[in-house]
Amino acid sequence: MSDLFLYGTLRDAALFDAVAGEGPGTTRPATLPGWAAERAEGVDLPVLVERAGAEVEGVLAEGLSEAQRARLDAYELPWGYSLGTVEVEAGQGPRRAEVYLPPADQLSSGEAWSLAHWQEGDGPRSRLAAGEIERNDPRLSPEELRAQWRMMEVRADARLRAAAGGPATVRHAPAEGDFSVRPTRPLTGGFFKFAGLELEHRRFDGGRETQIPREVFTGVDAALVLPWDPETRLVLMVEQFRPGPAWRGDPNPWVLEPVAGIIDPGETPEASARREAVEEAGITIGKMEKAFGYYCSPGTNTDFFHCFLGETRLEKEDVWYGGLDEEGEDIRVHVMSLERALGLLATGEINVGPLVALLLALQQRTA
């Protein structure tokens, strides 16, 4: 198995371990003379540029097993990288090694690329996302990895937000060892994932619940906003066909909702809510207030909703069509009085939890 010179994000030891997995492979410092690593345009990744007198810092991966090398190839090659051969310095004279060459359309920004900058920015998300690759069954094809990578990053960001925790003035404040979560089978699914788990946790009486089998839908963090006009007391909501009610057997699976969407990798919940308002309804949000955040169904899934009230200009009751064609969105936008919306809540026509909660929050704030 040929040695492999790594000059980009795989120099990060945690990412290398997450991608390559267990095996005999080791890494040691090496340099590539006559080349420079520059930041690619629009993305924090390195591009190799030939330059006399320069050198690229990296690591030489040696003794990789076939399985480790296959996992590294599966991580890099689907993105248009190709294998080339270079001569590197690794402390004992020149060594020939293979290297992942970036795709031809990945252009340099002219700025030096910094591993430390990547580690502080995209690094935590990339490590968690890469760790998900090997937990899929069946193994992801290169095409599937490309298609699913964004959602892997979305789930990684959700885990990073979750790690911040929240207040525990009434509920139990867990100590180390109070609970554990162990995966019992590989992840399944495409856009979303389904996980089998075994749980263990401390009981309120001081005992312990052990070997609890559970199945969990691995969803997303989403941003939701209820646009409203403080002067006219009009609110805006969107109407869409939803598969959940249809699969449950509801004869009317068209539902009224707040503006909402998945938080993109590296995006804040507030920025996501503002973007979705433009994309779904064609409006711009001014002042925005965080209403609350919550798990929508914590017994069965990971979905967490970041909910906002956003001020905008709404002059009259109206209906129009919105959404992005490229995302296949079929959206009808409704503008109505807060009082009329609360009436729809009372009759049950508004039957989606986030819109119910946001309307009640707005009613409380405007009482």
Which key terms come to mind for this protein?
single chain; 367 residues; alpha+beta; Hypothetical upf0131 protein ytfp; Nucleoside Triphosphate Pyrophosphohydrolase; eight-stranded mixed sheet; 9 helices; 17 strands; EC 3.6.1.13; ADP-ribose pyrophosphatase; ADP-sugar diphosphatase activity; magnesium; metal-binding
Low-confidence stretches: none
Number of strands: 17
Q: Structural class, from secondary structure content?
A: alpha+beta
Q: Strand count, sense and closure of the main sheet?
A: 8 strands, mixed
As a percent range, the share of helical residues equals 25-40%
Tally of domains: 3
CATH fold-level label of the largest domain:
Nucleoside Triphosphate Pyrophosphohydrolase
Name of the CATH class of the largest domain: Alpha Beta
Q: Helical stretch count?
A: 9
In N-to-C order, the SSE pattern is EHEEHEEEHHHEEEEEHEEHEEEEHH
- Going by CATH, the architecture of the largest domain would be Alpha-Beta Complex
**First-residue to last-residue Cα separation:** 71 Å
- Average residue-wise pLDDT: 96
Q: Tell me the strand percentage band.
A: 35-45%
User: Over all CA atoms, what is the radius of gyration?
Assistant: 25 Å
CATH superfamily of the largest domain: Nucleoside Triphosphate Pyrophosphohydrolase
Shape: globular
Family: Belongs to the Nudix hydrolase family. NudF subfamily.
GO molecular function, one term: metal ion binding
Catalytic activity: ADP-D-ribose + H2O = D-ribose 5-phosphate + AMP + 2 H(+)
Function: Acts on ADP-mannose and ADP-glucose as well as ADP-ribose. Prevents glycogen biosynthesis. The reaction catalyzed by this enzyme is a limiting step of the gluconeogenic process.
